[in-house]
């Protein structure tokens, strides 16, 4: 997968996050005749959670915060809901064999945040396959869209997930968010 493909996927997820329910924009509903109803939205649910590696999850959180500290940014606090989202998605991408922010059930990070009751005003997700926590963060920092999310000042919390897939690779998921206060 190219950096361009990953960037487009990531930006799409970020734009979807901006389209959350209750964002203060109430468009009128105009009935259309002769037009099929839109498909149901993606499932607002988490994929099955598998066992991760707590030490590697902690190292990823430390690597994210080290990068933020080096850039004069606020450090992020671990959040249990974001950890659940991240670990579930790490399991899902490992099972799919594809590093993508889209879930196997059609969900995105906003859907998964809603599933656990986490505010959706500022959630974002980064995913990767292979590497060490430090190497993955370094790669994200070299990609402008990923760097923008990782260094964003609106984030105050994070969750990290990792699982070793059947292919032997580590599958990473980092979810950034804030409590919308």
UniProtKB/TrEMBL annotation:
The keyword Signal applies. It holds the Pfam family CAP. The keyword Transmembrane does not apply. Coiled coil: none annotated. Residues 62-174 form the SCP domain. This is CAP domain-containing protein. Residues 1-23 form the signal peptide. InterPro entries: CAP_dom (IPR014044), CAP_sf (IPR035940). Keywords: Signal.
């Amino acid at each position: 997968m190219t950096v361009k493909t990953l960037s487009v996927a990531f930006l799409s997820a970020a734009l979807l996050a901006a389209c959350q329910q209750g964002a203060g924009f109430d468009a009128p509903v105009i009935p259309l005749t002769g037009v099929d109803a839109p498909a149901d939205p993606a499932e607002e649910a988490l994929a099955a959670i598998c066992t991760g590696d707590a030490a590697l999850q902690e190292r990823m959180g430390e690597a994210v915060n080290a990068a933020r500290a080096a850039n004069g940014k606020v450090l992020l606090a671990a959040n249990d809901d974001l950890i659940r989202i991240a670990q579930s998605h790490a399991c899902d991408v490992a099972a799919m064999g594809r590093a993508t922010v889209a879930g196997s059930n059609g969900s995105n990070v906003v859907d998964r945040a809603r599933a656990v009751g986490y505010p959706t005003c500022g959630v974002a997700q980064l995913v990767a396959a292979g590497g060490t926590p430090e190497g993955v963060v370094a790669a994200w920092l070299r990609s402008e869209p990923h760097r923008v999310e990782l260094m964003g000042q609106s984030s105050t919390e994070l969750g990290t997930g990792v699982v070793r897939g059947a292919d032997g690779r580590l599958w990473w998921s980092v979810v950034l968010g804030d409590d919308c206060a």
